[in-house]
Amino acid sequence: MKNKILYLLIAIVAIALGCKKSDFDDVSKGEALGNFTITAPANNAMLVLNSATPSAKLTFSWTAAKPGISTAPTYKFVAALKTGNIDAPIIELPSDNAGASATLTLTQKQLDDALKAKSIADGVKTDLIWAVKATNGSVTVSTTPILNVSITRMGDGVSNFLLYGPVSSNTAIVINPNSTTDLLKFKWQKSFPGVASSLTKYQVKFVAKGGNFNTPLFTYTSDNNGLDSALSVSYKDISDKMTAAGFTDQASPTALQWTVEATSGNFKKTADYVNDLVITREVKIFLVGGDTPAGWNDAAAIQMIPDASNPGTFFIYVKLTTGNGGFKFLNQQQWPGGSLNSSDWGMKPGTPGDAVVDNEANIENYGTSGVYRVTFDQKNLKYYVQAGRMGAVGGATAAGWNPPNIFPSQALTHIATNKFMGFVTLTGGGEFKLIDGANWPNGGGPVNQERDYGKGATEGVLLETGESNFIVPGATGLKRIVWDGTDIKNLKYAITDGTMFLVGNATTGGWDNSVGNALLPAMTYSGNGKWTVTTNMSVGEFKFIFTKGSWTNEYGGTAGAIAEGGANIGITSAGNYTIILDEFNRTYTVTKN
C-alpha cells in the first residue's frame, strides 16, 4: 500500500512539473521586445530645411530594441503635430533597410515633401512631436519619452560653401596697424540661393580662438555691399577693430578665428569650416631729425629694431651729431597729416625721458656728438639715449664673464647704423656673447636698457632672446667679430680669423685663394681696423680676402671706398706699393713707393 501511494505521489509531481513547463512555452510563443531609446537628434532640435541643398541628408537614430527568441523587430518613424496625438501621426515612415535598421535617413527634400503633403506651406516652421515604434508582429513598443522637434519647410536657402583664404594657420600674419593702403584679403566659395530671386549676401565674422560666432567680436559686410564672395580690409581698419574688441597690446600676436555667414532672404548658413587667423600688428618705429643721419627728411627716416625681449620697445645704434635740432620718432616714413596716417613722438616738455605724441618737443639734451643706443618704449611712452657700444664677454675672452671689464679692451667699433666690427683675441673652442653695456640685462627690461646677444639655431643668426653662446671657431688668436643689425628683422653675426690677404693677377699668388697658396706677404693688422702691406705688384687687378680658401668674405672697391663683393681694384703700373685697408672707415689706399 505504501508503494502504491509513493508511485501515485511521483506521478502527481511529474504531471505538475509537466504542466508548469507547458505554461512557460505558451507565454514565450509571443516574441517579447525590450525597451529602446532615441539617440539623435536631441530633444527640441530645430531643423531648417535648405532649398539650396535638397540632397543633403538628415538622420534619425535610436538604439536597437532587443528581440525575443527569433523574430527581429521592424521600426517606424512617427511624427504628429505638437498639439496632436502621437498615435494619430501626420508622418509615418519605415526606417532604413525596409524598416530593419535603427536609423532613418532622409534627404531634406524627402522630409520637405512629407510636410508639403500635409498642406504645410513653404518656409513655415512646424512644431512636432515624434517617436519610433518597433514591432515584431506580436508586440509593439515605442520610445519614451516622446521628443519635440521643429522643422521649417524649404523656402529661401543657400548652398554649402568653403573658405579659401587666408588659409587656416597658427603662423602669424604680420600687418602694419597704421597702414590704410595695405589690405588683408579674404576669399571664399560662392554660395548659391535656393530661390533665384533672393540674392545671397555675406557677412564675415571674427571671434577670439574658441569663441562663439553667435556673439562675434566684430563683423564685416563683404565687398560690393555684401554680394561678393570676397572682402578686402585695410590693415588699420582690422587693427582698430581688434583694439576696440579689447586687444590693445599691439606688440603681441592675437589668435582669432573667422568664418562667413551667407544669407538669402530669411535663411542663414555659415561656411562648412572655421579658419584660424593669427595677426601680429607690426608697429614700425623710425628715427628722424637733424641730429640723425636721416636729417629731417621723413622719407629717409631710419627704421628701429623691435626689441624681441620687450615687445613694444624699439632701439637703434646710431651716430648722433648735436646742434641740428635733435630728433623724434615716427611710425611711418611720413610726417603726420599725410596719406599713411602717421604719428610722431617727442619729449614731453619739462620731463626728459617721457615721450608724448601731442605738443611734444624735439629730443636734444642727451650729450655730445657720438654713437648712441636710442630706445623708444612706445607702450610706456619712455625713451632712452645711452652710450652705443658693443663688446665681447665670456670665457673665451681675457675679461671672462664680467661685463664691466670688457670696455674698451674687448669693444667693437660702430662702423654704420646698427653695425659693429671689432678685433678681439679669443680662445679657440671657447664661449662668449656680445653685450652693449657694463651690466647683464634682467628679464624685466632694465632701466638702463642693456642687451646681450648670442647665436641662433643657424650659424650667422644673431638673437637677443632664446640665444646660445657663440663658440670660437679655429685656433686661439685674433678674431674679427661683426654684429650686424642693418636688416632689422634678421640680425646677423660673423666670426672670422683676424687675417687679411691680397689675391688677384696683380699679386704674386694670382687668383688662387686656396689654403695651400702662400698669398704672401699677408697684410699686418695695426689696430683700429687698419691693415697694411708693402709688396711688389704687377699690372692687373686684386681684391682683399679675409680667409684663404674662401670667397665668402672679400672686399673690392672703387675710388678709395671698399665694399663687400665690390669691384676688382686695378694696378696700371708695376712696382712696389704700400696698400692700406681701413675696415672701420671702409676705405683703402694704394700708394706706389
Automatic annotation (TrEMBL):
Example GO CC term: the record gives: outer membrane
Q: Name one GO molecular function term.
A: starch binding
Q: Which domain of life is it from?
A: Bacteria
Q: Where is the SusE outer membrane protein domain positioned along the sequence?
A: 28-133, 168-260
PROSITE patterns according to UniProt: PROKAR_LIPOPROTEIN
Query: Would you tell me the protein name for this molecule?
Result: SusF/SusE family outer membrane protein
* Species this protein is from: Pedobacter cryotolerans
